[in-house]
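Workshop exercise sheet. Pairs work together: one partner reads the sequence aloud, the other fills in the structure field after running the prediction. Swap roles for the next sheet.
Pair: D.N. / O.F.
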Amino acid sequence: KRGGWRCFAKAAAAKTTTQKKEDVPKNLERLRISTPWEDAQTVLKSEFKTSEEDLKTFGELTKEELENAYEMMQLCRDFENECNQSYMGGKIRGFMHLDNGQESIPALLANSIRKSDLKHSYYRDHCHAIACGVDAGKVMAELYGKDGGTCRGTGGSMHIYDVENNFQGGWALVSEQLPYAVGAARSIVLDKFLGKEGMEDERIAIVFVGEGGAQNGRMAECLNAAAKENLPILFLVIDNGRAINTFTKDVAQNQSVFEQGKHYGVPGVLVDGQDVTDVLKVGKAAINHVRTKGPAILQVHTFRFNGHSPADPEHERNRKDEKRWARKECDPITIFEQSAHAQGLDLQALTKKAKDEVKRALDFADASPPPPPSLAAELEYPDPNGQVDYSQRVPEMGLAKAQETTKKIVDPNTLAGLEKRIADLRGLCDTPQGISIGDAVNLAVLEEMLRDPTCLAHAEDLQAGSSYNIPANTQQAFGRLRAADEIIDEGHFIGKALGEAMNGYRPIVELMNANFGIYGMAELSSAGNTYATTGGQFKMPMTVIGAGGTAPNQSLGAEHSQPFHAYIMGIPGLKICSASKPNEAYGLAKSMIRDNGPGVLLLPVKMMKTRGPCNPNQFLPLHKSTQHAKASDAAVKANKAITVVTYLHGVKESEEAMKELAASGIEFDFIEMTCMKPVDWRTIQSSLERTHKLIILDESTRTGGVGATLSAIVSENLFDELDAPVMRLCMEDAPVPYAGEMEKEVVKRASDLVEAAKFMCGA
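Structure field:
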């Protein structure tokens, strides 16, 4: 039983350490465990249902396997030692985390993980990458910040990526890699479903996480997702007992992470990471289970011989004593050398081979040139602004293959019904009343998912169309795998979408309410960073769509009235657009879905059912604002023309203000920020060259808001065009209240714009 296995491990630990009691400092709180293969088999038969025949196979280690394991351990030890020396010599900068003492894990990876498997590591990733086939010279060059590095010097120590070997990070935020790996595992299942050529049936995803990181709620969510869809993913838990220096037991009620899957039917097993032969045998069994049956947890009990990083003072209780003892008594390399398994192996030759490889890696890193300074700007977006005709972009598999695949995976009757639904929506575009914003985006989503089988949908309440019909009919037409209903955590399914996007898919994430995206800020940040951080290896064709903003009188209170758009403006690599009308919503959605980078399309929450005209045959640029009205030459000459820039609900408010001001002769050059990032200040420049006055009606706060950014850009670039200071009509910094009387003081509207325009024109 799992509980029995845990008790055995504890009892074995006591038994093992008693043998050399005089060598164990009395103040140590964490000792080595013992998990001999004969006992591990009982767990594997009980929990993994491993057959006797398979157990026999896994229990037999060939001479070649032992040689490779020892060489990999020596390679990793020497590589990390040289990293430490290079760090002290100033060749490696920033944060660096070494893996000394945990070498049995890369030995397992080299033994049992294939090139085609999808690997997601965390910040202590050097040895994981090397063991998975990434060239050691390229890894060292990346640490040196050189152009010959795995990511051309853009990632550094914590961000090793290699597209050729499917090594997909190196992720620096603790536990963020978990949903990304689940998304990667889904891509394996999707590849099979679509019948993609050249994809091995038994590929798996493997994700590394510390035992401290496994206490994060993401772990439970991902175990649930893996079990629900029976995904081929191994959760490899590296248990060194400490989070930086803090004992994990001080913050975790239960450290038996291998048991976390019990609630979901995901089997788990614990193994002594200081005995590489046990790790190889148990690890092979766990990996085979994932390849042939479904998800599993492998917890490896280790000791980390170095501090969290070279800057770590290691002040936590007993840490230095534990390190000294572990280096002497728990070194996996020494333990193997002293075992019967090492007999007959030329350890000296294997050690020399490993050291020679590290020497080669150092020489390669030293010789590699630095990256060009221009590289950072070149890697901002996979698709540079204005350089892509989205109407001409075909699916990666080719249009003919995409159409063939769709006919193969979608029932003919369902396909006919979907085509009728699309025709009906397109028909609404030509009616006098037009189509709603929600239906216009739904039309774009359905068209793209029909055209390209790699387009996916994720949303809460998806099968019911969510709140505004954006993902309506996707699951009914394309099934649960391509159109997934999600748990109520946006970070989780944005993270899964990120993993899918790294592996050849175009996920579309609908947020129901844009403010819920706050749960996914870490994932959105990484989505924006990934293309650049990987040196351009991994594109990120992911679209996030949400209705949000703050309309006057919406009476939703503070939490549903936050300026999410302002929160994400500072994330590099994101393209952010907004649309207040069906025509722009459709055209921007179509382009964004086909873009190879991450994009966020924001819609006005209180206007989603607003209907209007729509051209269903267009792709709008993602880098241009939209000018809806132009002040007359007479108004310009009379000094009564004003440039007004706004977005979301501000468009409707501005249109109302224009009507009210018509009698006074005040007119607007009226610009909607359909592109919020990058800011299209050239369109504003063209207008200011006529009006010389600017009012920004802003649905974000005075401090740190969209209007503040726009005002700064105008002041820096267009100051000479201004006859008066920029006027910002923005939300005050106070949380948006529920009661209308207070809300009027915080949220600006048409009446405020009318008053401001009259003041600016001296009327």
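Discussion prompt: The chain has 28 helices and 23 strands. What would you look at next?
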